[in-house]
Amino acid sequence: MASLTPVHFFSHGSTMMLGEQSDSADYWKRCGDEALAHEIKGIVMMGAHWDCLGSKIEVAMNPSPGKSPVAYVHASKYADYKLNPDLKTGKRCIEMLKAEGFNCSGNSTFDWIHDTYLILIRMFPSGCPPTTIVSANARFDPHFHLKIGSALRPLRKEGYLLIGTGGAVHNLYRNIWWPMLKYRDNFAQPTPPGDWALEFRQSVEDVITKNGGGPGLRRGLTRLMKHPNFRDAHGTDDHYMAACFVAGAAGDEEDMGSKGKLAAETWELTNMCNSQFTVGEWHSKTKNTVLA
Questions:
Q1: What is the secondary structure of 228-264 as a DSSP string?
Q2: Is the pLDDT of residue 292 over 70?
Q3: Burial of 85 (0-12, 13-18, 19+ CB in 10 A)
Q4: Whole-angstrom Cα distance, residue 191 to residue 194?
Q5: pLDDT band (50, 70, 90) for residue 283
Q6: How much is the mean pLDDT over the chain?
Q7: Which 3-state string (H, E, C) describes 100-141?
Q8: 121/103 Cα distance (integer angstroms)
Q9: What is the pTM of this model?
């Protein structure tokens, strides 16, 4: 049986996570180094800032995508980074999703947004690997997004790395913004996080680390949308869909026994918790020298 690549649920946080060093940024880099060492074929990502109306989902098929501007980060951090859209894998993802009944098509004009390229720059500063981005759907049905991850899960057996980039606790309405706006300090904690943020953050950790991979992960992460603190932790549902995508990608019965770990965490803006999770691990021996 072919070994499965791990799956990452990353909390990308504010735009300043691209410009400021953090434990999360260090972990993203380690994950990128491991992926290169194992000669991944490419990246397949679902972010939080692109969703489609009705029943539709799309796959990014722009051969030369631009980047949306990033607030509070100097352009030198991202402007010259060359994106690497994987149109061949994008076409294949469309076919796989259609085969599972999704109303899916390509988008040849989509420009990439910081929720995805922030992570890619941090993981692969020396160059972007072939990458495919899949949209979310604006109805924000957790089971719908779980099924997207499940439909694309077979790519893990072929050496593709699946990543959901959203947020564990991500409610812009409840953040404390003045330290960043006045002092450009996104890591300031003038007060402790709210109890609601701490409680929901703990619930996400418990679901992922106590279940690991398998159907329990799917049940747990989708059920968290009924958590009494969910609406405080997520003022909108968009940043949680990446978690549901990851649950689908790592939640098959074949994934049972795979460990889920909280590998890094960075608090921003008092109440935004950027937890970095990985489900599964690399099994094959390192093939390449890790790029610096």
A1: TTHHHH-SSSGGGHHHHHHHHHT-SGGGTT--EEEEE
A2: no
A3: buried
A4: 9
A5: confident
A6: 96
A7: CCCEEEEECCCCECHHHHHHHHHHCCCCCCCEEEEEEECCCC
A8: 31
A9: 0.96
Q: Which amino acid is at 270?
A: T
Give the amino acid at 1: M
End-to-end CA, the chain: 32
Judged against a pLDDT cut of 90, whether residue 234 lies above it is answered with yes
Q: Is 38 exposed, middle or buried (0-12, 13-18, 19+ CB in 10 A)?
A: buried
Please give the average per-residue pLDDT across 31-50, as a whole number: 98
pLDDT, tens digit, for every residue of 127-144? 999 999 999 999 999 999
The two three-digit tokens of residue 110, written as one number: 């989509």
Task: Using DSSP, state whether 45 is helix, strand or coil.
Answer: strand
- The strand pairing partners of 219, in sequence order, are none
Q: How far is the C-alpha of 100 from the C-alpha of 222, rounded, in Å?
A: 20
